């Protein structure tokens, strides 16, 4: 035991002495920053020549095509499938009548466990619009607070594809995301759609949705994007902007500055999660069965109701084989 203790002490002393000697060696070799500064500045100026990456241009073009298919398909399905939207919170339910679960929290989240007040939904309730500043150059100077009105706001996915080298027409890039057509617009009676054609539209929309999210995931691995930790503001670029628009810090000393972090696919293409009604569930979902019901993204639920085949990765979220709530 004594020999083991001496060996351990010798090993610890050698490690400590070695680290101290390494620190002395590193501290003695000083870096001449005056010589490195021109090299660093030259590297920063020349990095814009590496973008856009040619191999990622087809991915950006595929994302644009998938986005157009999803928008067109959801707009068509909303003429057939009814969608309900709460007046006081972002809750959405896909069906003729809204559910009876008390999950409304109001505008400012000052209340909870209140019933929803349902109204007809529209396209923005299914495909949540995410806007970002449109940059002429990926590596241009940061947008100051006083310059926030000098830059146009465009959809974040289109801005990502634009920086990736995709050719986007101006009428598509600057088109407003707000559509006035609601899910139950009675002013125009849509032409009847056959069930087989409706099923084809739903499956095509679902496949395009999966292709859209996969393409955005690939682009985010190459082109950096930022999202605020305290709000939903998104900026496509290597560093966030300086516009003070964050409401969390409005009454604090930060003066509305955003706290940026790396953005993901859910920040640019949000999945609007809705309640999923299974075949063995009651016609109207009640508050007592909240722990038994499943969930699904709004686009997936919308396509499912017209006969589309859902990928197996959503079955766990939807609780396809789960138990039904007890009958009271």
From TrEMBL:
It comes from the Eukaryota. Residues 85-170, 227-312 form the APO domain. Pfam families: APO_RNA-bind. PROSITE patterns: APO. GO terms for molecular function: RNA binding. This is APO protein 4, mitochondrial.
